[in-house]
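pinned: reference chain
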Amino acid sequence: MNKSRPVTTRKTILRTMAVAGIMVLAGGLRFWNLENQSVWLDELASVANLDAPAYCGNLYGMQINCPTHTMGPLYYCLQYHAARLFSLDVYGLRVLNVALGLLCVLAVFEAGRWLCGWSCGLLAALCVSIRPPVYLY
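pinned: its structure tokens
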């Protein structure tokens, strides 16, 4: 019985390795010196409210401590659960931002690949991964 399988070519393997390399570079740049960066006001307010026993307490505390902060409730929900998973300090909060930044690099790659091909996707992902304002803020 002959089953049809997709043929894995050398070109596909090299492209996949290039994407993996860009993702490792992006992760390294985002995690490098993460704990030594200064704490921002919104991060300080978030850390102060993460010890709430429930997610709603976290949201209520954010409205009290930082009323001008305009992040949506979905971000605070993710932040609350990520802090429970990693740690209740600023580093635990920033791990969520690193993960979202890596997803952004992958999304830019896929969009570029879909619109213009592999080389465009790789170049766009590389640009997003090494641009300092994207990984520092």
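why pinned: The CA atoms of residues 87 and 93 lie 8 Å apart. The chain has one domain: 14-23+40-136.
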